[in-house]
């Protein structure tokens, strides 16, 4: 409770809008004395004052505020909409005040009242709304139907069914309410609307039958399907899928395939669900063709292609996919898609055809085939994959072939890949060779580590997880190798790895110390030496130490440790500390940042205020 309430009320008349807004905000802690002045402030010429007054009235709450706001329902559109928000937010306390308005002579007032009761819900007696299904005003009747559905008043179903012959707009609301109420007993009456002259009513009836989700609704929809128009067919299929398609509904396959071919993307998604439910293999060529038509580089296709893939994988699709590999009617992207799925499903029957595709003129088909052969793990494809890894004109295909050989892990590929390591020029391909060699025989490859060039040793340090090997690599004479190995120790995160990382925090080279700090952060280990790195003479070591502490230490402790860095002389480190504290969040974070808000200036103060506003 505020003591200076009268002073604040007088401030609502101040010439300065900011003073009026501040007074309106502070009156949120007031009592009934502030209600009327705040209602007057809703008409202030300043939007900020209006908004603050509305929020304060909601905060004060109570029956008195609700009672005094009700007259605003008869004012201009702004005040009326504001009153609707306030009453809705005040909630249950306003319900008894609203009941008398159900008898108001103003049609709009009755409608607003019914809408509010449907939105408030708690403490509302739905039976009071039933008579308004026969109100003289159509908008009021529609609002009554909608609110009865929102209130879950099952007893209203007979009255709602009797009102289905009302005008179109009201009928929509009644159907929506019957769907919300799960009124399965109304299926027969809703079915009559499928012969209604209005297409919109027929669509609404189809949608409602889908929401009801009962067997009798399924029968009605299936019976109407042959008589329906093109657009209605899609709506019926959607509703049937919503209810649940069963294998005995195989007669729907042709509708689903048609919907898949001709529908918009949303309709294709619906059709795919039905196709999977029916195990409709006839649709597989259509699905593959659609996948072939989609450009994978476009953002909108990032979710579409996986959905198509998942749908085919859910079907028994091997036979159909094998046929498509020989079909001249399927575009090359579609064939790549089919090859990918055959690889994922480890189709051994596809191996001979995939090996043939390694000689195809189309690069994408060669790529897809090498990946699929690697997924299948077919030893009979090793010779041809080795040939592709050495001779294919496209570096991407060579890389895919090498990756496939690594997945197959055959010793027969080890020596040819070692020979290729000395010949290959592209670093990304070399990296794939190193990865494959480690997969095939890590001991053999790592036993000759000192004989490899600096770049290969660095790649190895980025890939291996064996702590003994990483401990060897951190002693490498080349800095890049050493740093990569320190990062690797962080990923390993064992006690030996952490102990080694802590030792490197005393290295003379700041880049090495920074790598050790990052490694400890990756290991999520709050080591005492890591805390000392916050005082490192190199500013970037301190910068990364802040991030590592945030990752590694218990949250409340991390906030206390990092907050000391808010006074660091290196501005990026201060910014990193603010970000870290904000990401940790909680009361400790807010308190830590607020202590420094007035001590900072310029961009740092702005950053702290931005962080505080998000906590």
Write the layout of secondary structure elements.
Elements lengths: L4 H7 L5 H10 L8 H7 L5 H14 L1 H8 L7 H14 L4 H4 L8 H14 L17 H13 L6 H6 L5 H13 L6 H6 L6 H14 L2 H10 L5 H14 L9 H10 L2 H13 L6 H10 L10 H10 L4 H8 L6 H13 L6 H7 L5 H14 L5 H10 L3 H14 L5 H8 L5 H21 L6 H10 L3 H7 L5 H14 L2 H9 L6 H14 L4 H5 L6 H14 L2 H9 L7 H14 L2 H10 L5 H13 L1
Write up what this structure looks like.
This protein is mainly α and 615 residues long. It has helices at 5-11, 17-26, 35-41, 47-60, 62-69, 77-90, 95-98, 107-120, 138-150, 157-162, 168-180, 187-192, 199-212, 215-224, 230-243, 253-262, 265-277, 284-293, 304-313, 318-325, 332-344, 351-357, 363-376, 382-391, 395-408, 414-421, 427-447, 454-463, 467-473, 479-492, 495-503, 510-523, 528-532, 539-552, 555-563, 571-584, 587-596, 602-614. Helix 15 (230-243) crosses helix 17. The chain starts with a helix and ends with a helix. The mean pLDDT is 91.
Question: What's a quick, concise take on this entry?
Answer:
The chain has 38 helices and no strands. It is mainly alpha-helical.
The tally of beta strands, per DSSP, is 0
Strand content: under 5%
Largest sheet: none
- Coarse morphology: flat
Give the structural class: mainly alpha
CA-based gyration radius: 35 Å
- What fraction, in percent, of the residue positions are helical? 55-70%
Q: Cα distance, first to last residue?
A: 26 Å
Q: Characteristics of this structure?
A:
615 residues, mainly alpha, 0% strand, flat, 38 helices
């Amino acid at each position: 409770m505020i003591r200076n309430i009268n002073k604040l009320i007088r401030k609502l008349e101040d010439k300065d809008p900011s003073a009026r807004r501040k007074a309106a905000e502070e009156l949120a802690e007031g009592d009934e004395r502030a209600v009327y002045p705040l209602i007057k402030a809703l008409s202030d010429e300043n939007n900020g004052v209006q908004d603050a007054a509305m929020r304060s009235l909601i905060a004060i709450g109570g029956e008195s505020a609700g009672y005094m706001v009700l007259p605003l329902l008869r004012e201009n559109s702004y005040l009326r909409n504001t009153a609707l928000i306030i009453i809705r937010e005040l909630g249950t306390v306003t319900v008894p005040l609203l009941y008398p308005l159900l008898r108001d002579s103003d049609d709009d007032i009755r409608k607003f009242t019914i809408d509010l009761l449907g939105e408030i819900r708690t403490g509302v007696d739905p039976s009071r709304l039933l008579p308004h299904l026969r109100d003289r005003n159509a908008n009021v009747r529609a609002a009554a139907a909608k609110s009865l559905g929102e209130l879950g008043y099952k007893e209203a179903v007979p009255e709602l069914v009797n009102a289905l012959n009302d005008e179109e707009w009201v009928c929509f609301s009644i159907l929506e309410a019957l769907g919300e109420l799960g009124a399965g007993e109304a299926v027969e009456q809703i079915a009559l609307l499928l012969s209604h002259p209005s297409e919109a009513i027929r669509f609404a009836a189809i949608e409602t039958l889908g929401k009801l989700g009962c067997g009798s609704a399924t029968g009605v929809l299936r019976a109407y399907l042959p008589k329906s128009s093109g657009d209605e067919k899609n709506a019926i299929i959607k509703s049937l899928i919503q209810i649940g398609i069963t294998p005995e509904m195989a007669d729907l396959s042709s509708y689903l395939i048609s919907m898949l071919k001709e529908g918009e993307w949303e309709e294709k998604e619906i059709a795919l669900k039905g196709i999977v439910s029916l195990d409709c293999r006839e649709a597989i060529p259509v699905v593959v063709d659609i996948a072939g038509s989609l450009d994978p580089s476009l953002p909108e296709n990032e979710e579409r292609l996986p959905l198509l893939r998942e749908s085919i994988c859910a079907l028994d699709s091997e036979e159909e996919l094998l046929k498509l590999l020989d079909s001249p009617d399927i575009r090359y992207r579609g064939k790549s898609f089919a090859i990918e799925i055959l690889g994922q499903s480890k189709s051994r029957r596809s191996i001979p055809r995939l090996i043939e595709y390694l000689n195809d003129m189309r690069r994408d088909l060669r790529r897809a085939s090498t990946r699929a052969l690697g997924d299948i793990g077919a030893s009979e494809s090793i010779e041809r994959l080795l040939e592709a890894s050495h001779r294919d004109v496209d570096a991407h295909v060579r890389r895919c072939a090498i990756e496939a050989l690594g997945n197959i892990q055959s010793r027969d590929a080890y020596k040819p890949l070692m020979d290729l390591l000395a010949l290959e020029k592209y670093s990304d391909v070399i990296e794939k060779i190193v990865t494959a060699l480690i997969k095939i025989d890590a001991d053999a490859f790592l036993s000759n580590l000192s004989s490899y060039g600096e770049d290969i040793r660095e790649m190895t340090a980025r890939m291996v997880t064996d702590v003994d090997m990483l401990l060897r690599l951190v002693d490498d004479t080349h800095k890049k190798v050493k740093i990569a190995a320190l990062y690797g120790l962080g990923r390993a995160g064992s006690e030996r790895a952490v102990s080694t990382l802590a030792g490197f925090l005393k290295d003379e080279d700041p880049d090495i110390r920074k790598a050790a700090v990052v490694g400890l952060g990756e290991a999520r280990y709050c080591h005492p030496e890591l805390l000392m790195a916050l005082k490192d003479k190199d500013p970037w070591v301190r910068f990364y130490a802040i991030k590592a502490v945030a990752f590694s230490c218990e949250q409340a402790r991390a906030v206390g440790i990092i907050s000391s860095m808010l006074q660091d002389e290196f501005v990026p480190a201060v910014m990193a500390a603010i970000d870290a504290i904000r990401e940790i969040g909680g009361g400790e974070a807010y308190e830590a940042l607020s202590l420094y808000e007035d001590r900072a200036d310029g961009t740092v103060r702005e950053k702290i205020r931005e962080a505080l506003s998000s906590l």
